[in-house]
Amino acid sequence: MSRIIFSSPSTLPQLYSTSRRIVKMSVAQTINPGVSFRSMVVKPPSHPTYDIKGVIKLALAEDAGDRGDVTCLATIPFEMEVEAHFLAKEDGIVAGISLAEMIFHEVDPSLKVEWSQKDGDYVQKGLQFGKVSGQAHNIVVAERVVLNFMQRMSGIATLTKTMADAACPACILETRKTAPGLRLVDKWAVLIGGGRNHRMGLFDMVMIKDNHISIAGGIINAIKSVDQYLEQQNLQMEVEVVFSLFKVFLRILKYWNGLVVGWKLIC
């Protein structure tokens, strides 16, 4: 599912704002915007040099520039309060709910966010599965960033779920071929969709591929160099070797002689 909107024809395109004295919505769950990772349904992956909060701050800064939302400043009274609803525009797996809460909290901690679904749930087209209420200006400022993340994550989670179900009992893993700067978000969506994370980057796993084999002068040279490097650096980490020929596999087995552990072969 790649389409989620704040539905409505009333005040703003894609924003359904109504008097909170009139609209009522029964919800199964309310999550504190300051929720910790421990209480999330699916925790985001971790990275040693940046985190999800850094991604959020960059996304909001990218949108606000050096002036903020000039259209909101010009058209929406700062004291106006509204209630906006999340509407699924396609069937699929919803993802990014926890991230949306973090974004709303970053923009305005006083915004009240409620959900009837959670990350990883299946939603049908037309379902209103959440709402946010509070100052209209702050909701609209956060809206596009929230939707951009949720639409992307929901699309990834939905496709992952389809593939994971088809592959069961095998596991679906993703790659490093993610949008620059969005790796944590993309890999989080894979987890929500029922997949598993492969290596986060170049730092947490050795993965010997064609380029390394060619430059090292052959597969055995590459493996020997990795063994030596890990021993010298006193590192314990997984090693994967990617190859396409069965004879390469036989060479690797001959070198290892069944003594090396912690290595994976991918043909």
Automatic annotation (TrEMBL):
Domain (Quinolinate phosphoribosyl transferase C-terminal): residue spans on this chain: 156-242
Biological process (GO), any one: quinolinate catabolic process
GO cellular component terms attached to this protein's record: cytoplasm
Keywords of this entry: Glycosyltransferase, Pyridine nucleotide biosynthesis, Transferase
EC numbers, comma separated: 2.4.2.19
This protein's pathway: Cofactor biosynthesis; NAD(+) biosynthesis; nicotinate D-ribonucleotide from quinolinate: step 1/1
Catalysed conversion reaction: nicotinate beta-D-ribonucleotide + CO2 + diphosphate = quinolinate + 5-phospho-alpha-D-ribose 1-diphosphate + 2 H(+)
Pfam families named in the record: QRPTase_C, QRPTase_N
Quinolinate phosphoribosyl transferase N-terminal domain ranges (all copies): 69-154
Single GO MF annotation: nicotinate-nucleotide diphosphorylase (carboxylating) activity
Zinc-finger in keyword set: no
Family: Belongs to the NadC/ModD family.
Protein name from the UniProt record: nicotinate-nucleotide diphosphorylase (carboxylating)
Protein source organism: Populus deltoides
Lineage, uppermost ranks: Eukaryota, Viridiplantae, Streptophyta, Embryophyta, Tracheophyta
